[in-house]
Amino acid sequence: EVFNANIFSTSCLFLKLLGSKLFYCSNGNLSSITSHLQDPNHLTLDWVANVEGLPEEEYTKQNLKRLWVVPANKQINSFQVFVEEVLKIALS
């Protein structure tokens, strides 16, 4: 399953906070989502849920990224979990 989220915020500080907590997993490495900011107020995220049995090489080959919450080390495998995590970050 592929997920897409377009986030607009008048607070660029909020998007920076998201960038400090949400990370893409690609090629077996975590990288901050901040490099995907389109401008200081707009963020677009695309990620996939974990696919049982799919080797890491296949994610890399197909350019598939997974989304993680750090430091909780929690993978986001549904849009509901994504919304919950964004709300937790916003209210922290």
UniProtKB/TrEMBL annotation:
Pfam family, one: KCTD11_21_C
UniProt GO BP: monoatomic ion transmembrane transport; protein ubiquitination
Sorted UniProt keywords: Ion channel, Ion transport, Transport
Domain BTB/POZ: 1-92
Species this chain originates from: Mustela putorius furo
InterPro entries assigned: KCTD11/21_C
Name the UniProt record assigns to this protein: Potassium channel tetramerisation domain containing 21
